[in-house]
Amino acid sequence: MSDETTAKRQATAASTAPAIELKGISKAFGPVQANKDISIRVMPGTIHGIIGENGAGKSTLMSILYGFYKADKGEVWINGSKTEIPDSQAAIAAGIGMVFQHFKLVENFTVLENIILGAEDGRLLKPSLAKARRSLVELANDYGLNVDPDALIQDIGVGMQQRVEILKALYRQADILILDEPTGVLTPAEADQLFRILDRLKSEGKTIILITHKLREIMETTDTVSVMRRGEMTATVKTADTSPAELAELMVGRKVLLRVDKNPPTLGDVVLDVKGLKVVDDKGVERLRGIDLQVRAGEILGIAGVAGNGQSELLEVLGGYADGTGEVRLNGAPLDLTGRLSDGQSRRRRGIAHVPEDRQREGLIMEYQAWENTAFGYHHDPEYRAGVLMNNAAIRDDTAEKMERFDVRPPNPKLAAKNFSGGNQQKIVLAREIERNPDLLLIGQPTRGVDIGAIEFIHQQIVALRDQGKAILLVSVELEEILALSDRIAVMFDGQVMGERLPDQTDEKELGLLMAGITDTDAAAAAKGT
Amino acid sequence: MDYLTLIQLLDSSLRLATPLLLACLAGLFSERAGIFDIGLEGKMLAAAFFSAAVASLTGSVWIGLLAGIGASLALAALHGIASITFRGNQLISGVAINFLAAGMTVLIAQSWFKQGGRTPSLMGGARFEGITLPGADAIADVPFIGPLYSELISGHSILVYMALAAVPLTWWLLYRTRFGLRLRAVGENPASVDTAGVSVVGLRYAAVAICGVLCGIAGAYLSTALQAGFVKDMSAGRGFIALAALIFAKWRPWYALWATLLFGLFGALETRPDVIESIIGMKVQAQFLGALPYIMTVVILAGFVGKAIPPRAGGEPYVKER
Amino acid sequence: MDVMPKWAEVVLVPLISLLLAGIISALVVLAIGEDPVAAAKLMVTGALGSTYGWGYTLYYATNFMFTGLAVAIAFHARLFNIGGEGQAMLGGLGVALACLYIPWPHWSLALVGAAVMAGLFGAVWAAIPAWLQAKRGSHIVITTIMFNFIAAALLNYTLVNMLRPKGSMDPATARFPEATNLPTLHDLLSPLGIEFSKAAPANVSLLLAIAACIGLWVLIWRTRLGYEIRAYGHSESAAKYAGISPFKITMIAMIISGALAGLMATNNVMGEAERLVLNSTEGAGFIGIAVALMGRSHPLGVFIAAILFGFLYQGGAELALWTSIPRELIVVIQALVILFTGALDNMVRMPLEKLFLALRRARTSKEAGAAD
């Protein structure tokens, strides 16, 4: 580390000025007030958490700090002096580095090329690359951030990619690091590694802002935490002085049930029987390596696992829009796995409904009105037809009724799907799929991007369907959701089922081990050992 | 087919490949930065007219060349404004520019020259003549090397040599400079460049400008070197063939050279049905030969390069994530 | 939040775009030394001032309705079919074969037969690029453009080498038999006591075009196929989830598109020329793009835009006849319409959205103030 930086660090440690101070930041996008008079102080050498629901305004605030947006009102003070941040270059010059939720890397460049992009030393590349290579070695030694500089981004894992993002910030001499939802794509073990790195950075005098919606991370990693709700900063507290329940209440504004009330399951016959299911993607990589599982009537089977371990492919094959090999039976009769044309229609005819993981990309046509979306996937249904033509009036009536039953707001069938909030969009999809009375319901990430009030409702609906004797296959990256809803849990890692557990006989730690690829017996042993 | 005919054929191929190469490199810069450009055709046509027209009026082909580049740059700017600033549909913009050029060139030609939509024939200083390289005459009679040097390599107009030089220059710019790194990044993931504090808009406009210059040279070549004057619709689909070559070349400069030379060869064969007949032993219809470059374009798009991967962010306007 | 009311989106934006295109066209006319106002007046009288003018305007409009509908249905599936020109040429071939080689007793049967052949040939010509796009990922924009050039070569070859009557120097077919001649608007209207120019070529295929507009509207918004096409056009990933096959939609949308473009030949080849000549399409396939963009891919919009462009075309022909303004002015206008309605529509939309937002803010603050 250079003498200049050491001196700077010592100066920062000695002063009591906050590393970051925001005074009265306000920002509106059209009619939406994303940030309303936000004031916050983060002291140097601390980890500060910012928690809030989707749409609370966290990302907007950080974007202002990083120069992406200009605040309508308010001031930004860095290390005790007022700083103008009109663009990202100014933010970088002020020592702010940001690690985004969705990585901003160029997939077919090397790690080194990504690191120097925008921070090259001069017009020619060769000297820039050489200098960066040397710096990388230093940074690896100082912070334990080891990467292969010549690897292509598309070839390295997600945890590694995140390291590259951190290195990018450190290469640009960032003293303040902002991490936006960093653990979304990491296994619990990788997340722990990340927090160890953050602790080390903190001990070297860096200031860290952690944006997350995971209460557990806040409690375990941060020194202080701010809560945002609907564009406002509702509270800033010392983490040691608060609790998850209190934070949740601050996030939502009322007491929140973090548990789901449900009766023990009444199990029926096996509805879904999967044997040796394999899926190969179009690059020839095996995404599912021989999955065996069963779901009975009246049962919720929860599939836990970090995103990208084959769960999506499982849902796609069962939903009828990906091919696979193996044997899948629904109520005893085999399902076709090699439809040359999409087979989503025949799946629906067989009694499989599907609430997909990505409602905006798959579950809904955002430009279609709510009533058109109600018929989506079921547009061949005789009840929606008048002879050869579609019976639009009938579909609209049906939509109005569904909206009432599922408390969709606003209850306007003619409103385009993109104009509904995330939770209401999800309810439209759920209403459509659940009211088909399917034998098997596939659900992926049911409460992603959904506000807490709607989460409760959705969980209740899922449990209600299960109590009607239907089989439910639930995929979620949120372990809490899996533990709360499932009657049985299967953990997937790297295209395989690592093990099955009953929710009251396991915990997040054991599940985390299985999610990270530890084998069934080893994970059980490790869980017992502690 | 004897050696001399082969040399003549290759010589012709190079001449015909030159506008394709320039247009292909133009498209390469634009597409690598994420801006699809099917308006290469229109820019070439506009440049062809204005360079011939100004050359004819001023008597100087170099001023004509500048005028041609200017016209192409104007259309490139239009495409840039529509695609970058106004985030419009890049394909539609390209189509509109092609029609605009097709219509405006004839309108202005008729207005200026009253010759039914063409310029007068260019002569003397208003044309690019072939350059005889040193020693070409001396070794012309030496067997094998003589014709190779004096016919194939020497004797082309300067624009041909410029086009050939543009290939290594493009390679160097893209892969050895900071600008090239950023340009390639902005076509793959513009957010990576934006968050690093570099202007996405600036890079893309730069790419579009380079595209405009190269198309300008390509168009000028058509009317002041390959032929002697502008006629209506003289680009004849070359802009699209250049696009096919670009895809064939997987958006890489050196491959672009070989791809365009291949298409140049097709064009050369079109004028030598006797050569084809001697090779495959069958008489080939004139219409088929005329359609050959277009058919080959389709074959290439369908066959070998059906799955070539374009720059990942190509064709998508960049909007900051919220 | 939808900032602009629907009527503004559907009517105001294209109208302003059209106005901009018009202003720039006027500037172009000025630049080449002619008077834009006089030119406009000449166009109006020439195209709309007499039944002769109307006859030509509607004749051209019929062409553009077919090609505009063709582009529109493809747009709904997010496919950019630039091959209307070539598909219309192939349609002409179909019409020629039907009229020359099948002895029809009456024009109504001949029309049906010719329409089927025209649609078939156009559909096939569109199906090949469609298949290449769906199966091989070949960009449909480039392949359809190539197929335009190939169609021209193919037509040239068949006319010169196969369909040309012996002894004729013209690369064209023989005249179609009289039984296949379609009644013009004059023939249709005079029994009703309505006077219409005898010389104008607008004919019964206009009714076919209008029927196609209505039929396409029903298809797009009232049938399951239309629902699937639009869904796929909005989101391929969602379509796959719902069991809608991207391959099937690509093929069907393009086949319908090609068939519609091919049907144009019932107007220009069968209705007007009554034989097949080289370049019978005269750029109508490309004007279809402008028509579809202006009409927002809606059959009613296409209908109106087609008549507008029919007016421009006939007006342009009059201009070329009486002034020194070449016909290429229409190509320029067409380019400007495509530019403003298709590529620069945000340039019109963004300020309008700001305006509506400001109006809404003013209204809400006024209401808040009045409530005090």
From TrEMBL, chain A:
CDD domains: ABC_Carb_Monos_I (cd03216), ABC_Carb_Monos_II (cd03215)
Keywords: ATP-binding, Nucleotide-binding
Domain ABC transporter: 20-255, 272-519
Signal peptide: none
A UniProt-annotated Pfam family: ABC_tran
Gene3D superfamilies: P-loop containing nucleotide triphosphate hydrolases
Organism listed in the record: Sulfitobacter pacificus
SUPFAM superfamilies documented for this protein: P-loop containing nucleoside triphosphate hydrolases
Superkingdom, natural source: Bacteria
Listed name of the protein: Heme ABC transporter ATP-binding protein
GO molecular function: ATP binding
TrEMBL record, chain B:
TM annotation in the entry: 12-29, 49-79, 91-113, 158-175, 205-231, 251-269, 289-309
Recorded superkingdom: Bacteria
Protein name per its UniProtKB record: ABC transporter permease
Keyword flag Membrane: yes
Keyword field: Cell membrane, Membrane, Transmembrane, Transmembrane helix
Main location group: membrane
Compartments, as annotated in UniProt: Cell membrane
One Pfam family here: BPD_transp_2
Signal peptide: none
InterPro entries: ABC_transp_permease
Lipid bilayer topology: Multi-pass membrane protein
